[in-house]
Each structure stands twice: as structure tokens, then as C-alpha cells.
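I would love for you to help me understand the pair of lines that follows before we discuss the fold together.
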Amino acid sequence: MKIFYNPKVSEDNKTVHAKSSKAANSIYDFLQTFFYMTAIVVLAMVFVVRPVSVDGRSMNPTLWDKDIMLVTNYYSAPKTGDIVIITHGKKLMEPLVKRVIATEGQKLSINFKKSQVRVDGKVLNEPYTQGKTIVGNGVIPEVVPKGKLFVMGDNREHSTDSRFTEVGLIDYDDIIGRARVVLFPFKHLKLLPDVEY
């Protein structure tokens, strides 16, 4: 029996095999890239940045209800003027968005009649606030204790914050991160810069 060798068929088989290998390599490369990109995004969300939504009006007019902010982790101590996300206060379990007014060791006093906040003897220039600074049911410390922060919302008439026992002074460990940018809605898109007092 004669076996006929057809070189054309052999070349066609090589071409098909090469094409299928190329397609498999392309799929593998795509899946590998997709996996790495997903891992990078997840790590960034966990360790570097994350989106957080504002709930309520306590930070008006700086932030509005349902604004979505980009929040970065803290790698140094929060400072006066920072907008921070807090895991919870003493009794509230939902995350809070507030502004740091005074940090550990700082002297604090609030003149409720004039709506003036004084830190280390200096009246804070706070053009970002709204409404009168009302009295809460908590105690305003003369000096903020070690490891604690005193926070308030920018909407001083409608904010449950360190003036109230429901929140009180905040532990440094309860800070999730600092708000840096408002991402959405697009009409509210803006940077949240450092505040200079």
C-alpha cells in the first residue's frame, strides 16, 4: 500500500496549529492582564483610596447628601481642618463625615453666642460653615485628651458631632481616612484642599 505525502496538507495543519496557539496565548495574556489590573484596583481600594458616600446634610455647604468622595488612608496624624471619615462614635454605628476641629493636646473653646471656635487661643477662620454653632448635650474639653479628636460638621445647626454625647470625642483609631475629592455628581466635582488657619 502506497502512502501519499501531501506537503500542502501538512503546511495547512501547521498554520491551523499556529493560529490556535496564537489565539490561546492572546486569551492567556488578556486573562493575566485582567487579573493583575483587578488585583491592583482591589489593593488600591483596600489600602490607598476608596469611594465613600455622604449621608445627610451635616457637612453642607462643603458636601451635600449623596456626594461621592474619594477617601485616602492616613499615614500621619489628622490635623485641624481635615475632613475625615469616622467608623463610628460612641453609639452611632454608621460612618460619619466630619471636620477635625482640634487634635490631642490642643486647647479648645467655643463661643456659642458668636459662633466662634478658638483653638490654642486663635479664632478659627471658617468660611465653609453654615448656620449658628449650637450647644450640644456633651462637654467641650478645655484640652483635647491624648489619642482623641474633636470634630464638627460644617453645618453647625444640623450636625451630630463631638458636641453631642452620641458621638463625643473620636479615637484616632476610629478614623478611616481623609476626604480628598468630590467625584460625583459631576456638578459637585472638586478638590477638598488643606485648610489654612
